[in-house]
């Protein structure tokens, strides 16, 4: 699995990992801020962006994909920042390469299995688009809108709609994501705790990190620190990029 990635800046290495339905570009605001002092690698996870598709979609496999890129580039030490699903990939990566990982930053995600189905409307919208031959992006949005009411979510999804020949298609693997949704919402079996520097950043209005998850977070990441960003939801890094960048930079400089 040869992941697509892009590189910016120079200095110590930081790996940025996007969330579900995203791509390397989703953490672009962070990358543009961090590249002034770090060498920033933004990856497309399997089944997303320009990376290959696969029916296999576990967190250990996704973390190994990222580690393979790191090994290929000859990187000895690195820090990693992951948002949402990418946060779980980052946490799984900590288990695979604990001695190489200098800082682990998790944006609005916990190392737990979530029980609620949060994306059924998105799946319905993606499948609706796939049921038609799309020649204009506006057509895709019309079909999406039948199931996805939030215009911001539609625009986010449409970033992964690409023209191939005369028609538009999703870059992410819709069928593969749907088939593995329970795995994506779940969490991997227990691994050795990561005792390195760890920071969880929560959006105040998001419910992905809850007080009842604290014991599980501390069991798996005993050195974890936490920071809450006021008046933000799950997309805290897009809602308050300067605040999130400042929090991350302060943590990386310690």
TrEMBL record:
Against InterPro entries, the record matches this protein to:
AB_hydrolase_1, AB_hydrolase_fold, Epox_hydrolase-like
Q: Which SUPFAM superfamilies match?
A: alpha/beta-Hydrolases (SSF53474)
Gene Ontology molecular function, alphabetical: hydrolase activity
Q: Per UniProt, which keywords does this protein have? A: Hydrolase
Residue limits of the AB hydrolase-1 domain? 14-244
Q: Which Pfam families match?
A: Abhydrolase_6
Give the source's domain of life in one word.
Bacteria
Identify the PANTHER family for this entry.
PROTEIN ABHD11
- Name of this protein: Alpha/beta hydrolase
- The organism is Photobacterium angustum
Q: Lineage of this protein's species?
A: Bacteria, Pseudomonadati, Pseudomonadota, Gammaproteobacteria, Vibrionales
């Amino acid at each position: 699995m040869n992941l697509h990635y892009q590189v910016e800046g120079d200095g110590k290495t930081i790996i940025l990992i996007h969330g579900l339905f995203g791509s390397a570009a989703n953490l672009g605001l962070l990358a543009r801020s961090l590249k002034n002092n770090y060498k920033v690698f933004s990856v497309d996870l399997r089944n997303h962006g320009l990376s290959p598709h696969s029916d296999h979609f576990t967190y250990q496999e996704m973390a190994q994909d990222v580690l393979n890129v790191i090994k290929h580039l000859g990187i000895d030490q690195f820090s990693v920042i992951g948002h949402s699903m990418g946060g779980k990939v980052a946490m799984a990566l900590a288990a695979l390469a604990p001695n190489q990982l200098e800082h682990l930053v998790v944006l609005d995600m916990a190392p737990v299995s979530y029980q609620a189905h949060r994306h059924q409307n998105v799946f319905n919208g993606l499948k609706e688009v796939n049921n038609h031959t799309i020649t204009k992006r506006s057509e895709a949005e019309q079909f999406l809108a039948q199931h996805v009411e939030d215009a911001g979510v539609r625009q986010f999804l449409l970033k992964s709609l690409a023209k191939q020949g005369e028609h538009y298609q999703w870059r992410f693997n819709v069928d593969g994501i749907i088939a593995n949704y329970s795995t994506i919402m779940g969490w991997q079996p227990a691994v050795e705790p990561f005792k390195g520097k760890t920071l969880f950043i929560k959006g105040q209005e998001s419910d992905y990190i809850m007080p009842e998850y604290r014991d599980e977070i501390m069991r798996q990441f005993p050195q974890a620190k936490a920071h809450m960003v006021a008046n933000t939801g799950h997309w805290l890094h897009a809602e308050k990029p300067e605040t999130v960048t400042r929090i991350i930079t302060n943590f990386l400089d310690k």
